[in-house]
Write a structure and sequence with these properties.
Layout lengths: L7 E5 L17 H7 L3 E5 L1 H4 L9 E4 L2 E4 L6 H18 L3 E3 L11 E3 L7 E3 L3 H8 L3 E3 L8
Parallel strand pairs: 1-2, 1-5, 5-8
Antiparallel strand pairs: 3-4, 6-7
This protein binds iron/sulfur cluster.
C-alpha cells in the first residue's frame, strides 16, 4: 500500500497542534496536517495517556529506563501510555502512524541519550518501538509526500 492510499492514520497528537508537549506547547506540523486532510485521524499522546500531567518534567531513556530530569523513574507511566495508545490505534484500524521525532515516546529513529545534554543517539521511543513491534507502519513527518 502506498502511503497516500492510507485512509486511517494514527498521529502523535502534538503534530496536529494539541498542546500536550512536556513544555505545554505543540509541534504543529503543516505538512502532517495537509497529508491528513480527508483521512480518518486517530490522535494519540502516549505520555498523557499514561497519566502524566502537562506541562511535565522532560524525560529521556537511560539504559532502557525512562527517567525524568528530576531523577524520578517514570518508566511505568510511559509504558502504560504506550500500550494504551497502541490499543487505540489497533482498535481504530490505523494503517500507518506518523510520529514526532526525537521524543522518548514517539521518536522513531533517534532519541536523546539519557544524559539531558542534548546528545542524540540512534534508537526509538517507547511508543514507537511498541508500534513497530506490533507491525504498524511508522513514519516521521519528513517521510510524507509534500502535498
Ligand atoms: S508523547 Fe508523543 S504525542 Fe505526546 S507530546 Fe510527546 S511526542 Fe507528542
Amino acid at each position: 500500500m502506498s502511503i497516500r492510499d492510507a485512509k486511517v492514520i494514527g498521529v502523535s497528537a502534538c503534530l496536529l497542534g494539541a498542546r500536550c508537549k512536556y513544555s505545554g506547547g505543540s509541534n504543529r506540523n503543516e505538512r502532517v496536517l495537509r497529508f491528513c486532510g480527508g483521512k480518518r485521524v486517530i490522535p494519540v499522546c502516549p505520555e498523557v495517556m499514561g497519566g502524566l500531567p502537562t506541562p511535565r518534567i522532560p524525560s529521556e531513556i537511560a539504559g532502557g529506563t525512562v527517567m525524568n530530569r528530576a531523577g524520578e523513574n517514570v518508566d511505568d507511566a510511559f509504558r502504560r501510555g504506550a500500550r494504551a495508545a497502541l490499543d487505540e490505534l489497533l482498535k481504530g484500524g490505523a494503517e500507518l502512524v506518523i510520529l514526532q521525532p526525537r521524543s522518548p515516546s514517539c521518536g522513531l529513529r533517534q532519541i536523546y541519550d539519557g544524559s539531558f545534554s542534548g546528545r542524540l543517539i540512534p534508537g526509538a521511543g517507547v511508543f514507537a518501538a511498541l508500534a513497530q513491534e506490533a507491525g504498524l507502519r511508522c513514519l516521521e513527518p519528513e517521510d510524507l509526500p509534500d502535498l
